[in-house]
Design brief:
This protein is α+β, with helices and mostly antiparallel strands. About 25% of the residues lie in helices and about 50% in strands.
Length: about 450
Amino acid sequence: MSLPPLRRLLAWGVPLLLVLAVVAVFAGKAAVAAYLRSESFRAFLARKVGSSLHAQVEVTPLDFTGLNMFCDRLHARGEKDAAFAELRLDGVRAELSARRFFDRVWQVESVDVERLDWMLDGSRIESPAIPVSKTVPRQGGLLPNRVEIAQAQVREATVRWAAGGIAGVALQFTPQDGGWKIAGAGGKIEQAGLPALDVQRVRLLYRAPSLFVQEAELRQPAGGAVNVTGEVNFEQMADLRATLSGIALAPFLAEDWRVRLRGEVSGEVTVHTPLPARAPPEIRGTLTLAQGQLEALPVLDEIAVFTRTQQFRQLTLTRASADFRHTGDKLAVSNFVAEAAGLMRIEGSFTVEHAAIDGAFEVGVTASSLQWLPGSQERVFTASRGGYLWTPMHLTGPLAQPRDDLTPRLVAAAGGAVIDTARGAVQDTIKTGKDVLKSALDLLLPK
């Protein structure tokens, strides 16, 4: 007895459909695997990365183990609109997933990069004159046309700019609000003319075209800390604010001044520069110095000699602060105050350019310090305010050996005082002699 047509269809059709489905799955997987290993996919990947970065990208051949991909190197050269001149990723591993294949998305569950080298400054290349669609094979209509990454990490990242960079930092990337949340730790940051600082941790948010620095904690080996916040808009400018706390001053000074000035610096500093950077940034701020010591300055040695007060040779500063602005090779300092309470106070402003200083100061000392300095109150320290006697001082010349105009005036005042004293002593002697002679004559000559 034969089966009804419907039952025959179910009996033979369902198993056949299942077999065809299994075959289709394996065929589909084979087709996808073949495509992933093809030059077309490598070209698609380079095009997508290049479009996102505004760069021309080269990707070395891809190796696959299942859906795990390895790429030896990805190299990008920035075009005119790019936020960088050159970018290189070495040892790129990615774990792909087919779970969003029918959404036309290549889902990348994770990316692991051994090394990243990002050069911000440098020449850009011209955008290709020929449309990309004519140089890269077109992708099939059923295949995914987007790439989305769930998370990524860089084990060792280096970011370089013209005068410095960050090296050896580990980074973790997570998508957030159309951008990337970035967490990092380790490594060092360096800037020309300044000592290196250790990177403790960083928290960033990248949303094109800006990188928002939510927190960046840097530390000095000696224990001081720098905390940075701000924004880097790669198409316009960089504005950063740094809060300094207990930073040792000596490593930031020229070698000749490291024996003259010591202490720990705190304060606020801002950094502004247009991007792409074509000149050194403008750096300005207000700093205070704690546990400060000022010594080995010729003018202080001269004052110590004249006043017979050895404390002037090594001043322990109870207060020191200043506002500053640094642009290019020029440092301008205003509202400078340095005080050793009960002994000396210096106020003024100065500029340093091409390793030379030019400054105008007011120097105040206590009256007791001038008791051994003949003529100083009459000829040099002539103004009185705030418990000090004051005189102007001009400081000029190379930083290694600056010249001041106070020392010559102290010498001249002391010399003039000696001459005046001698002149008075001679006059007194003559007067006394005349008196003695007159008395003798009075005795010898009767009236």
